[in-house]
Structure formats: structure tokens, C-alpha cells
Write a structure and sequence with these properties.
The protein is an alpha/beta fold and 398 residues long. It folds into two domains: 250 residues, Type I PLP-dependent aspartate aminotransferase-like (Major domain) (Aspartate Aminotransferase, domain 2), CATH 3.40.640.10; 139 residues, Aspartate Aminotransferase, domain 1. It is built from 15 helices and twelve strands.
Amino acid sequence: MSFNPADSIQDLKKFGEFGGVNPSISDSSTYTFLSAKTMSDTFEGNADGCYLYSRHSTPSNLNLAEALAAMEGTESANVTASGMGAITPVLLQLCSANDNIVSSRTIYGGTYAFLKNFTPKLGIETTFVDITKLDVVEAAITKNTKVLYCESVSNPLLEVADIKGLSALAKKHNFKLVVDNTFSPLSISPAKLGADIVIHSLTKFINGSSDTVGGVVCGTQEFINDLRNVNDGACMLLGSTLDSLRASFILKNMRTLHIRMKQHSKNALFLAKKFQQDGVKTVYPGLESHSSHQLFKEMMNTEYGFGGMLTIDVGSLEKANALMELMQKKNLGYLAVSLGFYKTLFSAPGSSTSSEIPENEQKEMGLSDGLIRFSVGLDNNIERTYQMMKFCMQEVCV
């Protein structure tokens, strides 16, 4: 039977301690022991099922981590206080001074800033490449390369990574492939395609209600144990701990993720096709005009579609801003960063979520001033939404 990520979530069985259909929330920052020896053993990581302090773990966080590991098909997972709180410990756990990271050039601005501006202070250098060209990626690898980093679907240009091909390179040269799968939960399962470590910002589609910040690292039990090690674990020592109450919120919202992702994808594909027919420069992996359309089809879990993210280019920042302001005025969505909300969110990445990338580098990678990134919402009548968006475009762009 083929792997289905939503089924893996659904098959988990967790009751609350009093028989509640939802697991009980662990509302404690510290935990008591019946013996001093058990406390000592827990510090050393030798007491399964015992809790010491909430920065180490909590029942609520472990319940969420178990669901996320099941979704991605990995042995284990560790939840964190944000997406960046997942990305940064992973890279610091895998790399030391004089090591090299080969990274996609089109990634979330915060990740780019971390690799470009922060890790060099620790002696870790990053080579940014066009992740869609395997020969270019391999040419950038050195004897000091420890990590190949990419996003399944890149932020904001929606480039698609050949995860199987990148995994083969990682195995050939004996380093780790780390994939941020935030834009494509359920649609793509990177671990099943050969990724060693899968990361999500839980803030986005997985939680889906724009009220909680969180992150997760999915990988082998050995690697997750390393991250949690009290002596040298980057998650443990950097302290990016997810609150138990927030973890319980995300776990409950995960139960509808498969329904939401199907609707996000359905609506995004509808809008992308209509925009393209109208002559608007549109990028969406579900369009045959997308350079990696066939690759995405080969990797995807078909029933969840091509995701909820698309971009259009209206030619200038002035037009982009005017269009977004008008669409917000018409209640078609919100001019806001982030993604995965029930309402459509739109922003101009060059001056927002990718503003950490220097302007000359934005131009080199094809990030133009007029680009608008859409996180398409769960609209029931997407035809009506399209007609109103078309009117707004005619008002602003003609």
C-alpha cells in the first residue's frame, strides 16, 4: 500500500488522561519524580516516559511531534517555537566552523539572512545556487560541504526542487539533505523521496488559522535525540521551545489539514488558469507552463494538488501595491505576510518576506518589483472571487 500522509495522521490514537477525545494539555513547566535516581537518569536521557522540564519535552509537544513524524513518514520529530526555531538548530547541529552549506538561492528571507549574515560569524559559509540545476549544485559541493538545503517549493518564486536528484547527490558526497516543506504539506513527502531531514513552519498551512507560531524538525530518532541532548543539542541549548497549549491547538487543526489543502490547491489552480488566460504573468506548479510542472507531478501525492501558493507579476511595485490595496478594500483578502489562512493573503515579497535579500541578488534570481505572492484561501465560490479580482486588475493594471 502506498504512503498517504493524511491517513498516517488519522491512524494515530490519542486519548486524554481522563478519556477525553483530545489529549490532555500538559500545563506544567516542570515535573516531579518519585525518586532522585529517576531525575538523574532523565537528565542523562535514560528514563523513557519521564518528563523533567518543559524545555526538554512535554506530553503535549510529543503528541504533536508524533503526528508530524507520521505525516512526513519519519522515525521522530521535535517541535519548536517557530519555523526559524527549527531551521537554525538543524543547521547548527550539522555544521561547525570551516564547514560549508550549499543552499538554494530562492528561500525564505529569514533563512537567507541566517545563512548569509549570521553563520559566517561562526565560520560556516554558504554557497547559493540555482537548485533546479543538478549540475550546478554538484559543482558547488566541496570537501567541507555538510548540508544541502532547499525548499520543496521555493519562497517566493515557486521553484520546485528535484528531491530525488538532490538526495542522490547528498548520498554520493556523504552529507545531509535538509528540505523545508512549508509550502507543500501533504502534497509532497520529502522523506519518502530521500530527504534526510524535513522542516516546517507550523505557523502556516499546518496550523491554518494564523493564530499560532511554531516549527518542527522531522528526521531519524538518532538525529532528534542529538537535537535534544542536554550537553550539545542545538534545540535543547538554544531554547526554542513550543508552548504546550499552542502545541495542542496545532494538533487539533492538523485533523482538517487534508480537507484544507485540497481546497487551497483547487482554488489556486482555478485562479492560476484564469489569470494566465487573461494574459497575466502567472507562476503556479499546477500550470503546464511551469518549468517544473512535470517534476512536481512525479513527486506529488496527487489527491492534495499543487498547493495554495501562486504568483503574478504586474510590472511594477506601484501597481502591485495599488492592486493589493484595492483587493483588500473589496474584501478579497488581506495585505499581509504569512500563508495558509482561510482568507487569501497577498504581499510583494521583494519589499517584505524577501527584503533581507539584496536588491541586485533579487534581480539575478528573477524576483521583480511587480511580483505579488498569493496564499490562496478557502473561498467557497472561487469563480466569484476571480471575477472580482479581474475587475481590480482592470482598474489598476490597464
